[in-house]
Amino acid sequence: MASYDCSKCPGYCCSYPLIEINKRDVQRLADHFGLSFAKARKKFTYKDPEAEYALRRKADPHFGRICRFFDTEERRCTVYHARPSTCRKYPTTNRCGYYDFLKFERWQQDDKDHIASTDNG
Fold first, then answer.
1. Which of 111, 89, 70 minimizes the C-alpha distance to 2?
2. pTM
3. Beta carbons of 22 and 46 less than 8 angstroms apart
4. What DSSP character marks residue 119?
5. How many CA atoms lie within 13 A of 70 on its CB side?
6. Does the pLDDT of residue 97 top 80, yes or no?
């Protein structure tokens, strides 16, 4: 059983610098939005030196940049049912290190909505 609750997280995994997806994921997004594969690829991804398909990102007040499909007000995925396979598999273990860190920081701050940052710079 998992020991994390994504609904209580501000979306840390969605803020990774590179969110690599695959061709099938692009097609899933294309189908979800009623677009051709080519249009979805151009609109939602970019080619990174480390990945043929990488999700585009947008500004975020907490993490700097975040997945373009992340609602920065509600702090949730806007394409949850069409989300890429990497998102479906995360985390690959039954614990999420950021969620553990977040729970501890919220307890320390005595603030159930505190958003803990991992940026010390």
1. 89
2. 0.79
3. no
4. -
5. 27
6. no
